[in-house]
Amino acid sequence: MSRDSALLLSGARPSPCVLPPENIPPAAPFILTINHYDRPGLGAWWAIAAIVATIAARRTREPREVRFAMAREWWYPRGFGKWVKQPFTRWFFGQVGKAYGTILLPPALDSGEFRGQATSAIRGALALTRGDTPELVGIAPEGQTGAGLALRHPPTGAGLFLLMLAHDRIPILPAGIFEDSAHTLTVNLGVPFDLRVPRNLPRDERDAAAARQVMVAIGRLLPERMWGMYQDAIRQAQNGYA
What we know:
By secondary structure, this protein is α/β, with parallel strands linked by helices. The chain is built from seven helices and seven strands. It has one domain (2-238): Glycerol-3-phosphate (1)-acyltransferase (3-Layer(aba) Sandwich), CATH 3.40.1130. It is globular and about 50 Å long.
């Protein structure tokens, strides 16, 4: 994936900027977490290409490739989208998964349409971070871009998924994606941190607490205009009250 990403970026003007690369662990494993950033004319894959190419160049040993989690298909409620577009995206994303080893998860919906279908994919993802040489896993917890490119709350279960991926062993590498005043696509890398949530909390509270920790860490790497639903929590964290 990193090789194709470098080829994709070779013609990009202006070139995306990933800073500071020294925050990427050169040998140790990590879970990469990013905000979901795309808009008309700028697909989410541009920032991902910049990140994976930079990580591969920075790493001094295997693994160098990031296995990103993504929806296995785009969901449509009815009509042409439901019967034509959705199956096509399922096929297309499946091909992407085969080529790049992406982690394909069913769309996170409140309707319950895909209830229970994520079990095998989640087990496969968790297996990647176990063993003596854990893989590098990347995830955008929000699942989709927020209104006005601002942060939004991740779907239920995202925090628990991150806790299971990290399993008190692998640090989180946060990254904030935005465009600067010169319209340069920028990836701002934070310092890796351990995701810690008390085990005695109820399941839903552990889920929310883990998601909040990760989203606040991402938010602190973004311009204030993009803090969205986490503006109060990010402000408190910056003032030392988190």
